[in-house]
């Protein structure tokens, strides 16, 4: 899969498409250590993983890269319809769904789908917590409990996700079994220094200049070490012909965040 440059495809499509490799990610050493270790295991030993952490800390990006490493690609956004077989393949099949947007009836029917020959199928549920709000916790539990599937989910908080999943499991007394098959890992924001150095490197990579050295310090400060905010600023800078990160752009990001500069 190709990695889009900031401000080009992402801008035109109106979506964020910068997707770092594990090596390009800043911070998150615990998360990356876990995912890299998982990738050394036989696919049949893989567990479900739930990534919990603040917005813009790399949960979705890391999960996508992980899913790609296992299955080679991600299929989105539609679910196969009930009764339809999953595509055949040796490496498995990764399904990308968003917890807030997935079709509820189809999601409920996942566990009964035909699991053909691949050893594992991976279901990447972005914004996992939203499934609970939509009354789909029980279906999620069934899928996570099925050894034919690996679920990797992301959520912004524990309360809306793992704990509620635990309570669903508790009700049918399968909590231990379910939790043995699940790893919860929290994502972390990088330190100021890490983010500063990383941002400098990205600006260089995308040949984006700075109007003033202080602009970068300001950006790190207002971003509160949230990588996603810095990426937003880089993408904005890349979308202008000047190819420069300016104080105006930093202020634009701040306005969007509603934070004082
Ligand atoms: N640690 C990181 N290193 C590099 N890029 C990151 C990191 N965290 C987030 N990003 C980038 O910032 C943007 C937002 O990250 P995302 O993975 O969507 O965050 P989350 O899912 O945690 O809300 C994406 O373009 C992503 O590639
Ligand atoms: Mg996300």
For this structure, the quaternary state is single chain
CATH domain class name of the largest domain: Alpha Beta
User: What's the average pLDDT?
Assistant: 80
Q: What do we call the CATH homologous superfamily of the largest domain?
A: P-loop containing nucleotide triphosphate hydrolases
CATH architecture of the largest domain: 3-Layer(aba) Sandwich
CATH names the topology of the largest domain as Rossmann fold
Number of domains: 2
Output the number of helix runs.
12
What is the end-to-end distance? 37 Å
Structure write-up:
With 261 residues, the protein is an alpha/beta fold. It folds into two domains: 28-186, Rossmann fold (3-Layer(aba) Sandwich), CATH 3.40.50; 190-254, Helicase, Ruva Protein, domain 3. Helices cover 43% and strands 13% of the residues. The strands form two sheets. Strands 2-3-4-1-5 form a five-stranded parallel β-sheet, sandwiched between helices. 37% of the residues are buried. The structure holds adenosine-5'-diphosphate and magnesium ion.
């Amino acid at each position: 899969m190709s990695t889009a440059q900031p401000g080009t495809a992402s801008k035109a499509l109106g979506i964020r498409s910068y997707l770092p490799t594990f090596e390009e990610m800043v911070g998150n050493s615990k998360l990356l250590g876990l995912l890299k270790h998982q990738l050394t295991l036989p696919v049949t030993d893989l567990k479900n993983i739930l990534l919990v952490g603040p917005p813009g800390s790399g949960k979705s990006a890391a999960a996508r890269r992980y899913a790609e490493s296992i299955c080679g690609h991600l299929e989105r956004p539609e679910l196969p319809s009930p009764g339809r077989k999953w595509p055949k393949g040796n490496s498995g099949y990764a399904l990308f769904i968003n917890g807030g947007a997935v079709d509820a009836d189809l999601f409920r029917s996942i566990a009964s789908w035909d699991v053909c020959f691949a050893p594992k199928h991976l279901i990447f549920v972005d914004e996992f917590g939203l499934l609970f709000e939509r009354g789909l916790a029980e279906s999620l539990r069934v899928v996570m409990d099925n050894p034919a599937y690996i679920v990797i989910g992301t959520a912004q908080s524990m309360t809306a996700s793992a704990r509620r999943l635990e309570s669903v499991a508790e009700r049918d007394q399968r909590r231990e079994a379910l939790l043995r098959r699940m790893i919860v890992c929290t994502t972390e924001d990088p330190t100021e220094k890490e983010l500063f150095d990383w941002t400098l490197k990205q600006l260089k990579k995308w040949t984006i200049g700075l109007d003033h050295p202080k602009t970068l310090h300001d950006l790190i400060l207002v971003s509160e070490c949230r990588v996603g905010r810095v990426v937003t600023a880089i993408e904005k800078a890349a979308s202008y012909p000047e190819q420069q990160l300016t104080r105006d752009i930093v202020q634009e990001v701040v306005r969007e965040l509603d934070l004082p500069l």
